């Protein structure tokens, strides 16, 4: 049986998680139904707009995403420190942007007086909401419910639109994170929906590439796409919050990988891409395997052996899940 979600997520092990949600009943998230000829491409915009808006409410950032015909991928960064720094009123305002709240929270926002018992009860509720606002299960729930309601209304039907349980994988180190992001960004290329990464509609790689072309300093975090988790440069002291890689290096690595996958041959690895892979501790053949088959390569966890064992110990696993695959690809 699948493990409960709280046994798959440990923010002490990693704040990065790869999530996949798929449709049921042969439903179309996007694309064109070859049987009826009806196009659902507009739904891709629904999902992208909602996905990029939610980080304004949650303490969760988006590192990568790709919206496909009957499923989508997203790599999430959970910022627990940010949630802890919110004031009580910030938490209530954020929660009220999603739900009505309750009588106590409504009175609190209006500035009405609460007695000690009411205030104590509200404080407990606020801490619960604070926890939910940095929880990927709640993030995915809000996202999927909104799209399901719109799609069911358009299809004039009821019932489930998504599989009941989304898949998640913990990304335990930089190599796993980079490989997973490249896997997500290259989904349309592998599916022959686009020739190059920058032509892949409704993906993070297209957004990043378009912004980088217009920026004077593409690697500066303030000149990157504001809706996406930033690249902050190679590891160093006093590194700001973000992905530990230069954006231009990542774009070049994904471009090289996309050309190889599209052409169905190894090709020649560029010097810059080779330098990145050396720092990440993987060779080009391992990288291509992960970048094209990440879901199949790893189960719940992706990372080197040390990080994997630490994560499994923290979550009381009896054995290190997927140890053989992690040794083979990220040893």
Structure, described:
Strands 2-3-1-4-5 form a 5-stranded mixed beta sheet, sandwiched between helices. By secondary structure, the chain is of the alpha+beta class. The mean pLDDT is 88. α12 packs antiparallel against α14 (323-330). It contains 14 helices and 5 strands. 48% of the residues lie in helices and 9% in strands. It starts with 15 loop residues before the first strand and ends with a helix. It is globular.
Order of helices and strands: EHEEHHHHHEHHHHHHEHH
So how many helices?
14
Characterize the overall form: globular
Strand content: 5-15%
Tally of strands: 5
Calculate the mean pLDDT score and round it: 88
Provide the helix percentage.
Answer: 40-55%
Largest sheet: 5 strands, mixed
- Return residue spans where pLDDT drops below 50 for at least 5 consecutive residues: none
Cα-based radius of gyration, to the nearest Å: 21 Å
**Intertermini distance:** 28 Å
Descriptors:
alpha+beta; single chain; 331 residues; 14 helices; five-stranded mixed beta sheet
